[in-house]
Amino acid sequence: MNGSLDEKLEPIYQEVLHRNAGETEFHQSVHGVLETLGPVLVKYPEFAELKIIQRICEPERQIIFRVPWQDDKGELHINRAFRVQFNSALGPYKGGMRFHPSVYLGIIKFLGFSQVFKNALTGLPIGGGKGGSDFDPKGRSDSEIMRFCQSLMTEMYRHIGEYTDVPAGDIGVGQREVGYLFGQYKRLTNRFEAGVFTGKGLDWGGSRARTEATGYGAIFFTQEMLKARNDSLEGKRVIISGAGNVAIHATEKAQQLGARVIACSDSRGVILDEDGLDLDLVRQIKERERGPISAYAERKKGAKYSENGSIWEIPCDVALPCATQNELTGKDAKVLVENGCIAVAEGANMPVTPEGIQTFREAGIAFGPGKAANAGGVATSALEMQQNASRDSWTFEYTEARLQEIMANIHRTCHETAEEYGAPGNYTVGANIAGFVKVARAMEAMGHI
Length: 449
Ligand code: NAP
Description:
Layout: H1 10-19, H2 24-34, H3 38-43, H4 45-49, H5 52-56, E1 61-70, E2 76-87, E3 93-99, H6 105-121, E4 128-133, H7 142-156, E5 165-168, H8 175-189, H9 210-227, E6 237-241, H10 245-256, E7 260-265, E8 269-272, H11 279-288, H12 295-299, E9 304-307, E10 318-321, H13 330-338, E11 343-345, H14 354-363, E12 366-368, H15 370-373, H16 376-389, H17 396-420, H18 427-445
Helix pairs in contact: 2-6, 6-18, 7-8, 9-10, 9-16, 9-17, 13-14, 16-17, 17-18
The structure holds NADP nicotinamide-adenine-dinucleotide phosphate.
């Protein structure tokens, strides 16, 4: 890891390493938070006495279970699934489900840990959790996906509920999967408990603007960072990694605000289109055909595809990593800085390595950490829960306006907290401290639990 830890925090971190051996992504996310908390313990010495940090690093509950399912040929497969209920000091556990072959406990715990602070930052009453499975949905038929989701929910249903734990989507889990998961929950419990899952379809309890929210929110946050520097997105060259839910909607909002998005990617390669991406074509390939992004260059004149290429070598003003963790390294960050990039916001969770973050900080680039920049998704999930609780359905415009206001508030909170703790302009410090203090105060009030 990069930065050094305060002497009170180093032993806590060593204990986390010892108790969670081999979970490197979890170690990285814990270190990223602890390295900013030194000044908090000076201001609130009671948090150390109450062992709030040790408690916050230990999930309240971790559930690991077997998911057997049959493919279309009748062959049986066994996957492993997880639900980590990290912290419920502010509300029910809340966080998505990820289906990807790389999933193991360390990834779910890093995501769940970050989610605790992110959810606190939204100002909404939600705790933090995360789940997923090492199931690979690529190349699977709809029936196979349905059988897998039903088998998973046959165990998970007993651990979740609108007042307990409210899952949503993440990598590999979109509206199709949420439909199968929610359907099986409804069948098993005999309850139409809409608030148990977010990211639902509009006809069955979903919220308008939820699908768009993470990507739109990342752009609203970027806009706020630029505004704080008397700048805007208008006319900027933007590159956005990924071609999934977050990347597609970040592209859409950036284009609406007058930016030129010239590149995107998927797990196989990178597309460069100097004329500006044709988003309808990206959606056709990735959302409807569920194919590789290379198909874009075959259909769009002038576009270039590079297999296994690095998107970060493309000169740009603004870079938005929106695919996966640790996709932008220290080396990539140096190239971006040399090419004149002025702002980076994490649409994905922990996409920039610690070395990358340090490079951006040293270069004075505006850097929006995921806990703040991609909080729009979970914030709108909480708005979906509000609509479910009141059996209401808001318009797109109203919901988007709420999202925009929430992102501006998160930006303001991070900005002001960073200044208060002597690190002006450092949104990582601002996001970690503001999120942590809110959760810590609630934990203090609730006693030794
Ligand atoms: P998604 O719809 O499944 O899209 C993921 C995209 O990233 C795809 O284009 C995928 O390529 C690419 N990708 C996945 N794993 C990769 C890898 N190991 N290497 C390179 N590319 C990879 O997922 P999403 O919902 O957009 O989520 C993207 C990121 O945003 C994740 O970090 C997620 O945790 C975070 N996030 C999502 C939400 C939300 O509301 N969805 C909210 C907050 C944060 P292929 O198409 O080739 O698979």
